Amino acid sequence: MALIVQKYGGSSVADAESIKRVAKRIVDTRRAGNDVVVAVSAMGDTTDELLDLAAQVAPIPAPRELDMLLSSGERISMALLAMSIHSMGFDARSFTGPQAGMRTDSRHGAARIVEVTPTRLREALDEGAIVIVAGFQGINDDTQDITTLGRGGSDTTAVALAAALGADVCEIYSDVDGIFTADPRVVPLARKLSHVTSEEMLEMAANGAKVLYIRAVEYARRHGVLIHARSTFTSNEGTYVLGEGMKNPREPEGEAMEEPIVAGVATDLSQAKITVVGVPDVPGKAAEIFKIVAKSGANVDMIVQNAAPTGRADISFTLPKSDAAAALRALAAEQSDVGFEALLHDDQIGKLSVVGAGMRTHSGVSAILFEALSTTGVNIEMISTSEIRISVVVRGDELAEAARVVHAAYGLDGEVEAVVAAGTGR
Amino acid sequence: MALIVQKYGGSSVADAESIKRVAKRIVDTRRAGNDVVVAVSAMGDTTDELLDLAAQVAPIPAPRELDMLLSSGERISMALLAMSIHSMGFDARSFTGPQAGMRTDSRHGAARIVEVTPTRLREALDEGAIVIVAGFQGINDDTQDITTLGRGGSDTTAVALAAALGADVCEIYSDVDGIFTADPRVVPLARKLSHVTSEEMLEMAANGAKVLYIRAVEYARRHGVLIHARSTFTSNEGTYVLGEGMKNPREPEGEAMEEPIVAGVATDLSQAKITVVGVPDVPGKAAEIFKIVAKSGANVDMIVQNAAPTGRADISFTLPKSDAAAALRALAAEQSDVGFEALLHDDQIGKLSVVGAGMRTHSGVSAILFEALSTTGVNIEMISTSEIRISVVVRGDELAEAARVVHAAYGLDGEVEAVVAAGTGR
Q1: Boundaries of each ACT domain copy (chains A, B) (predicted)?
Q2: What is the ipTM of this complex?
Q3: Cβ-defined contact of B83 to A56 (cutoff 8 Å)
Q4: In Å, what is the CA distance from B283 to each residue of A390, B288, B336?
């Protein structure tokens, strides 16, 4: 008997009909002879509605109370899901984060899991029940207050439960079919991947792929949890995310095909570029600049510095569009201290990343990228690389074309256009 | 420094504006130098909306899960209330039923409080915080599952907290100004009572007065808690409900007026009457009938039996209209066994009750009632009495007139018409 952890996001339990559909899916998994533990998010827009209410009563809600408020969303969805399963004749019990033993630190709104002690879940499983757990929430070990895990928290809940219970697989359901070689809305010939390594997944997620949250993938990688990303709306197999030493469970032993060099092409239109012009070319200036930017709360991604023979350098960096205003304000306030000449702001950029574990052992991967872009006449503005990734910044309005050309150049194109799921929210 | 427990019902926290108004009221109480503990219900129609969702996913929701679901309503209102108080510059902390130490038995949906261990509330009070507690909910001591207290549960939560913390007073806020000598919508000249004894309050509540829940009044009586029923929408003093040996805190020592013999007139249109016709007049038949009725789940109120010299008797009883169908079905199924001749059902009755602790020591109280009714030509169909109450059943469409006449006959009429609150729901 296998133990399967499943995670359903808000769009999968948006209304009574969806909840009944998910309940049926859970019951089918149970009927197939598996133990089932489910992590569930709040219904549809519940969290946004609660945030809206909070904003109406308090301009800056107290973090402890905001977590108390938001954690009510999952209580609603999980209780409804449990009673729906019950009405199909199966024992199901819902547990809040605290009841599930999801112990965290005290950072309200962005708590980290410290330890999972799923005693009550084990008992319920031993008694034959299907276990439903509130995603996104935990309890602060010190003060016994409710905490929430922040963005993507329910994915993390599911993976943490899978790790603590030694589950065979953690199925993360969403409205897309799995992980694709590119975003099918950008690259119509994108193919669904049968599997991807967790390090590739991390690079793709960090560079624009939205199917899984980085934090959950990291947790899975660290704790050896096998993730299966699949769709709530079909029974198709999705994509397995393999940690170190893991095999794709669908590929019979010994028959593994040779791994492709490039797993996928990720695109990202959410970044802006700031250029600090005419920075005195003396040691410590870059440190000075990025200390100022960090203090503004901005999350810097790519950095390029052109040291010119004039004794002045230009430093460009990218960051989320939403962080740009604060970073610009912070830099402008320190202009005379740092001694730079001007600030340029560009929010019309696009980032294209090619990701593949095979890059480690194959040369010439970047040449294919640059060649493909040059034949299309796309200008490269910035380049950055990791061991298994090459990213370039191009004009935003050229990003889609660039992605299609690069996708084809690496031989990733499928034979038919991918079907894009109707729902796009998660 | 006094410790004041306040309870706000769903209509008092129905939206963001109401929550801010309640927050201000709580802050004013704190500013006046009091420690404040607040029990709060779910916002407006939240509970009904959750019940509706439950009905959509499961015809008969599992009780444990239904309690989990419903308990989310108070988490929302209490977190919003706490953050609203916070934004006014006061420390406020919300606590769920379990966190507040509200320990109950395991009857989901109708749990009884077993013990209150408000350790965390004491700590928060000692640290100067305003304490907000989720009404209506607790935790089952055996299985550590969430329970709810059923109808009027938040009133009971407030009184139980007041008892456990040794509060000076438990203020129960609603949309009416206090306890009246009669329902002002029925008797326009009804007067607000400055105080009422808890035994009078119990009789009035059991016989149609809707301001306070019986269970909360009983708990207060048993644990010596002073209740102050007042309005969320005015700063008027309301009505004190006095337990044994308690004095009205508004009346200076020694100046207490003589107690009125009759405290009020309660009216109730929610009952129906069933008459079992032609019951064999042999011992044990009444027991047989009421065993059948009890098994149907019906809650019998008044009973009248006319033993006739014919060897056959008619037995009439009243019960909530909603219980009548089940009781009739159950009786009809046993007609041949019991040997009665026919069943009559009448849902056009009204019950009028005169309540007053002074009845114990004064004679002639019932004579005033019968005299008043006879001069108006109202026919009495059933009579029942307790130590401090006389109830009569009359035609439903004559109830209002009967109440006005009786109210005047006991000298209860005020000089001006009472203002009826805009909102009527609780």
Answers
A1: 274-357
A2: 0.84
A3: no
A4: 96, 10, 17
